[in-house]
Specification:
homodimer, alpha/beta, Rossmann fold, Dihydrodipicolinate Reductase, domain 2, Alpha-Beta Plaits, eleven-stranded mixed sheet, six-stranded parallel sheet, elongated
């Protein structure tokens, strides 16, 4: 059997880059045995060549041109992240006819179409399995395995840091700040966790996946994004009593008038397939018109799980499995416009916690506000308290429109019998 | 954008074939919008052309040559099942340069290598996502998404009929015969359920998946297969009390001395990710050296879920995504021999139910037999009974070798204090 020899250059050698380099250097024989491809790591771009690494120093360079302009390199792997210079280097490499592998969800969420067009124009390809869901082959599922389906929804737990924090809050009753500090100590959260806990990272990944699901060019600006930093442990405790767990969900849903796109903490029934995805695991549930529901689980973070996806993409590009259709694949290029449903018009169920004065007329006033905004109560709990004190009133609603709930929350906050802003979480139980 | 036009012929128009034809006839525009491929259904082979169908009669034929020798047809889809004539027709179609899509696990399990070689020799391809796991893109995951991994294990619930029956037995306490009869009435089991309940269908699927996982040519004869027909509801009830559920598992495990391949009912801890896969759902858990554990869920049976996989394969073949590497892919062609570990040498935990005389010395005799065969007890329960009566003694063991347990069971059956054959199930809790 004649094997193909392919030379690879890595832009970036952080956590994932080190993992990719390690497997390529130590397991080249094994990769060849499984794929028929002999990968050779030619060059690795690092910021500081003096820093101690396990990679031979002869492979290291601080000059990106040694990779993107290197005629010996066929596949360029971009793992530095961010918009620039990553985007410029990728476009430059594509212009030089190189195939590109990237894990950069930030870049693809903002400039995916431009980069895919450039790949098509240069008869090349961009493989990006590692941009979403760590080890889970979800890009493969959406672009290939489920290609015959109209996608009704993609619902994911796409950020391992947030899922780790929420798991600690739910299972061990820890407040957000303690759970975050522990996640940082354990290496599951970065020193600056903003991109993760703000929901932006999940939003970028959802932009990539929803673009594939709907064949549309969906940007982070199209997504209603809410993070986990404002979550209070008391609400997670009440949710648990009601039979829910809290997850940061990224949701893309096809509805009659367009698509709804959002990232927010949501309460899931404990029996929901995504409810048992804990710690740094990710999961994606896809509802297709022909396949029905398929669900994918795997490690969402860490050097090796993401390296698995990067290496699969390198082999995919090397096997020439992507180039033949890259330019003509409508989900990658030739995307169509799609109507976005504003958050105010999205129907979901809701959880509300109102700190209310325990006196005659309070429930009447509160339910009056809800009724005026067409919000129907599914369940209501008020724990026993001394009369005259403020007590938490926990309400779950039937499906109600987002705009009505926002208005009702503002009005409730103004009622004399209500103290402070009501707490609000959306419920996700759209499951057979 | 210039779209590719591809003509398709279907061999067989049963449940899955009708689903595939329906989507191709009614949703061709949609398939083209998502894939860039215009599929045209040219001919459908049926056994009885007079039978009423929703397919236009102009498309129907009773002559396979109208498809496999038709110069207008580029992709032949084989959905008749069985070894012959399916195998001969596929080889004939490949010789004619056609690309082949098949859902035939029986054929691939027995003659996969021969058929893949023929495809390679004719510069064609065989796509077979629909052969295993219904809608789940597990062939794609093993051959592409996880290609950089050495596969440590593939563990699946691969037969929807058995899973439906076991779910009824576990959750509703029904005996096997009642659960089977209900499955037949509900259309989840065929009039002759032998291939399903014997474990053979799962064995065929495991042969296909394990061959991909290990790059070896694994046949049903290499697999230790045990079905569900002998299961007793009393054991499922005790298992439930002990915190287990019973599933028919198909297991392929890489171990130090070779691979272990088996299909058998197994007890899983309720917290195991596969334990909550109920009804006709299928699931596969794959443990990879780089990715860690990934798990895939989806509908395992029915016209549409399988049609989703068949259509994905048709599009894959049409997009020319498979042909470039089909001949050189070591997991498809160029498979290597692998050592198979005999069942007698496989270590697992075990569940035993012994009907024992409740008198002094009984436990001593039984534990003596177990000890002589190096079987260490993990837990033991004997429900209270009148002295002198026969009582069920339920034992779970630590890991013990299969051969030792078989010998011990034979010896236990001979003890004067034991009535009848002990019941025996294997436990699967190999999960982090």
């Amino acid at each position: 059997m004649q094997h193909i020899k392919i030379n690879v250059g890595l832009l970036g050698c952080g956590t994932v880059g080190s993992g990719v380099a390690q497997v390529m250097l130590e397991r080249a024989d094994h990769l060849e045995k499984r794929s028929g491809i002999r990968l050779e790591l030619k060059k690795v771009l690092v910021r500081d060549a003096a820093k101690a690494r396990t990679i031979p120093s002869s492979l290291m360079t601080t000059c990106p041109e040694d990779i993107i302009d290197n005629p010996d390199i066929q596949i360029v792997v971009e793992l530095i992240g961010g918009l620039d210079p990553a985007g410029e280097w990728i476009l430059h490499a594509l212009k030089n006819g190189k195939r590109v592998v990237t894990a950069n969800k930030y870049l693809l969420a903002h400039r995916g179409s431009e980069i895919f067009s450039a790949a098509a124009a240069n008869l090349s390809c961009v493989c990006f399995e590692a941009s979403c869901g760590g080890a889970i082959p979800i890009v493969l599922a959406l672009t290939r395995g489920l290609l015959a389906n109209e996608i009704k929804s993609v619902v994911g737990i796409l950020n391992g840091t947030c899922n780790y924090i929420l798991t600690q809050m739910m299972h061990n009753g820890k407040p957000y700040s303690t759970a975050l500090a522990e996640a940082q100590q354990a290496g599951f959260a970065e020193a600056d966790p903003y991109m993760d806990v703000s929901g932006l990272d999940s939003g970028h990944k959802l932009a990539v996946l929803a673009s594939l699901a709907f064949g549309a060019d969906i940007r982070p600006a199209n997504i209603d994004i809410q993070g986990i930093a404002a979550l209070q442990d008391v609400d997670l405790r009440y949710a648990r009593e009601l039979g829910y767990v809290c997850k940061l969900l990224a949701i893309a849903q096809q509805q009659a008038t367009g698509v709804s796109l959002r990232v927010h903490p949501a309460l899931l029934p404990v029996s929901h397939p995504l409810a048992s995805v804990n710690g740094s695991y990710n999961a994606v549930s896809v509802d297709g018109s022909v396949a029905g529901r398929t669900v994918y689980f795997g490690r969402g973070a860490g050097a090796m799980p993401t390296a698995s996806a990067v290496l699969a993409d390198i082999l995919e590009a090397a096997m020439n499995a992507t180039v033949p259709f890259f330019a003509s694949h409508p989900l990658l290029n030739h995307r169509q416009p799609v109507a976005i449903i504003p958050p105010t018009e999205v129907h979901t169920r809701h959880y509300l916690r109102i700190t209310a004065l325990d006196k005659p007329g309070t429930i009447h006033d509160i339910t009056g506000v809800l009724g005026r905004h067409h919000i129907s109560i599914s369940a209501m709990t008020q724990h026993e308290a001394r009369a005259g004190a403020y007590v938490p009133l926990v309400i779950t609603t039937h499906e109600a429109m987002g705009g009505g709930v926002t208005s009702a929350l503002a009005e409730l906050g103004q009622l004399p019998c209500v103290s402070g802003e009501p707490a609000h979480l959306r419920i996700w139980d759209d499951y057979e």
